[in-house]
Amino acid sequence: MSDTIQPSDHGFGGFISQRSQQRLLDALRAKGIKNERVLEALANVPRHEFVEEALRSRAYEDTALPIGYQQTISQPYVVALMTQLVLTGRERLKHVLEIGTGSGFQTAVLSRVSARVFSIERIGALAERAFRQLEGLGIENVSLRHGDGTNGWSAKGPFDAIMLTAAPNRVPETLFSQLSDQGVLVAPEGNNRQQRLLYWIKQDGIAIRHQSIDVVFVPLKTGQA
Ligand code: SAH
């Protein structure tokens, strides 16, 4: 397989954004993102479209950025790592549930490795913005819902992957019941200051827990806003 993945030509300063995106992809590779499908997904989602104008020049830095409403668009490395984790042992996913749509960036990345993505966001204004954004990019295999994702989306399950992009103290039990066999659930778990990225692989009805890196996410909150 080739060593470089060509970023898509997506306007915004043309070559400048393409070059900075390529540098980001190289950095992700150097940090241990080996899954070519994940790198290709990131190469084809223009992150600068998911941040406000004033932050566009920083869109391809490997850092989280504010998206308003005290929320952030996740760090590209963490998006790549979580996507790599949910793919564990599989080439593509069928139904994926994401809790915490935020900007919709992670949703768009997931949409490139899944048949269908279901994503829930508790802040109405963000849900609406993400909807417009994904629609504008022509992404059609995503269903968004404005609401509290704490209890998942049982009507659409079971899911072969569930991803939380906001941190609970403990992942709610009910989410595991919406995970299919061989399914992977990935989530940051912890308090405001200290969180660990964890993932569970469900085998014969039992979810086995694995630990990944320390992370910083916004908290998972109940109710909608
Ligand atoms: N993946 C997103 C991350 C956004 S930050 C991105 O890269 O842009 C996490 C998001 O989770 C925030 O938008 C926050 O409002 C949302 N959130 C927090 N608790 C939630 C809940 N119970 N249900 C749904 N969304 C929630």
Distance between the termini: 45 Å
Q: What small ligands are held by the chains?
A: S-adenosyl-L-homocysteine
Helix content: 25-40%
CATH class of the domain at 64-214: Alpha Beta
Please indicate the percent range of residues in DSSP E strands (runs of 2 or more).
Answer: 25-35%
- Determine the mean pLDDT: 94
Helix count equals: 6
Radius of gyration: 16 Å
CATH level-two architecture of the domain at 64-214: 3-Layer(aba) Sandwich
Main beta sheet: strand number and arrangement? 7 strands, mixed
Task: Please give the order of strands in the largest beta sheet.
Answer: 5-4-3-6-7-8-9
Q: What would you call the shape? A: globular
Work out the number of β strands. Answer: 9
> Could you give me the name of the CATH homologous superfamily of the domain at 64-214?
Vaccinia Virus protein VP39
What is the helix/strand order?
Answer: HHEEHEHEHEEHEEE
What structural class should be given to the helix and strand makeup? alpha/beta
Brief overview, please?
This protein is α/β, with parallel strands linked by helices and 225 residues long. 27% of the residues lie in helices and 28% in strands. β3 (93-99), α4 and β4 form a beta-alpha-beta unit.
What does this structure look like?
- There is one protein chain.
- The chain has a domain at 64-214: 3-Layer(aba) Sandwich (Rossmann fold).
- It has helices at residues 15-30, 36-43, 76-87, 105-111, 124-136, 173-177, and strands at 65-68, 71-73, 93-99, 114-121, 142-146, 159-164, 179-190, 195-203, 206-215.
- It contains six helices and nine strands; from the N terminus they run ααββαβαβαββαβββ.
- The mean pLDDT is 94.
- The chain is an alpha/beta fold.
- The structure holds S-adenosyl-L-homocysteine.
- S-adenosyl-L-homocysteine binds at residues 71-74, 99-100, 102-103, 105-106, 120-123, 126, 148-150, 165-166, 218, 220-222.
- S-adenosyl-L-homocysteine binds next to β2, α4 and β4.
